[in-house]
Amino acid sequence: DAGVIQSPRHEVTEMGQEVTLRCKPISGHDYLFWYRQTMMRGLELLIYFNNNVPIDDSGMPEDRFSAKMPNASFSTLKIQPSEPRDSAVYFCASSSIGTISSTDTQYFGPGTRLTVL
Amino acid sequence: AQKITQTQPGMFVQEKEAVTLDCTYDTSDPSYGLFWYKQPSSGEMIFLIYQGSYDQQNATEGRYSLNFQKARKSANLVISASQLGDSAMYFCAMREGSGNTPLVFGKGTRLSVIA
Predict the structure, then answer these.
(1) Is the peptide bond before B40 cis (omega within 30 degrees of 0)?
(2) Segment B48-98, tens digit of pLDDT
(3) Contacts A–B by Cβ distance under 8 A
(4) What distance in Å separates residue B115's CA from the closest CA in chain A?
(5) CA-to-CA distance for B70 and B106, rounded, in angstroms?
């Protein structure tokens, strides 16, 4: 089975440019999470969706960040304009509710390493 | 207050020995889930093991086991028979409530396995 797919794996851009990160969740999963990992703050939630609807975006740093999930198999995280402090690894994870408690496990994609110069 | 505390920034263990990575958590929700993830130097986050708050027995997955002490609010990861490939960052995480709520992560423990 294919896991969570993220693209690009690495992105280097200049301050002020628009950056779009992409995620394809595991087929059949109805929850999608975006996390960011930095040395200073560790892993923190940015936003999550259930059945393509944003449930909690309180972790989104500011208006420069936006996320969409137009369908069950695709989500984007956009930063516009990007700033050097946005440099981090961005993870997408997906999960589903099942009859067995362990099936709410979140499975992570490989991450996108973003560097903003 | 931190919800997940991992007090060991770094640990060393001899190959083939067992090692315990500490994790304490803080929640007032009676329903919660505890997870451990491994992050090798390549960067991906690999799910290792899960423990639900209502589970009566400690979770085990191969060489991984979770020492769940509910009254002490601890969920330590035990790795038996350490291998060189176990060298990585290990994160403890918690979701509160039932269902698919977001995870809150600890700061991680870097484990180094020595030959």
Answers:
(1) no
(2) 999 999 998 999 999 999 999 999 999 999 999 999 999 999 999 999 987
(3) 56
(4) 28
(5) 18
